[in-house]
Amino acid sequence: MHQPGVVRYGASHTGFRPELPGQSGGYRQRADSINEAMADSVAMPLPVVEPLPVVVVTRHQAVLDWLSSRGFPVYEYDEQDNRVLRWEVLSHVSDPAQVAGKIVIGALPLHLAAVTACVGTIDMPGLRPDQRGRELSLGEMAEAGAELNWYVVRERDIPAMK
After folding, report:
1. Per the domain annotation, does 46 fall within a domain?
2. Both 19 and 72 in a single domain?
3. Could you tell me if 25 and 85 lie in one domain?
């Protein structure tokens, strides 16, 4: 039995086509388009979802500037047009409560990453050894191939290993 508002696809002799929700008697009508199928389905309201708080874990100003230059809302402006941090920025995480259930951008140990909603890391595959551990410019980050990658880390019990 189909649920209202759900468009299913079914195979037919003419190919893979959308199906309308089931009719009484067990027969299904075929629709020639998604629009036709959706026209007869009941609209389901979307849930209201509050955005999760974001925390950036870094000691480097260039990371904040890089995120901002990519359109991430790291900063907002006050009434005097002063740039003010919108996201929480931490140089170090010592308590899991600081990142629990939040979106985190930065390097975290796995036991802390496991309590976050997700972790974004700025990976720079072309970073030279002499550039590690020092402040980089936006140009140097671009040359190193900086990109933001997202991960979800979860703790699991592992069976005993031999």
Report:
1. no
2. no
3. no
Mean pLDDT by 10 residues, the chain (162 residues): 46 47 49 59 70 92 92 86 87 95 95 95 95 91 95 87 73
100 inside domain: yes
CA angle 142, 99, 137 (to 5 degrees): 20
Residues 115 and 66 in one domain: yes
Instruction: Determine the Cα–Cα distance for residues 132 and 90; give it in Å rounded to an integer.
Output: 20
97: helix, strand or coil: helix
Residue 140: partners with Cβ closer than 8 Å, 6 or more residues away:
131
pLDDT of res. 10: 46
Three-class SS state of 77: strand
Report how many domains make up the chain: 2
Q: Which helix (H) or strand (E) holds 38?
A: helix 34-39
Domain-located, residue 108: yes
Task: Give the CA distances from residue 31 to residues 6, 18, 24, 43, 117, in Å, rounded to whole numbers and listed in that order.
Answer: 13, 6, 17, 17, 40
Residue 57 has what pLDDT? Answer: 97
What is the distance between the alpha carbons of residues 162 and 150, in angstroms, rounded to a whole number? 33
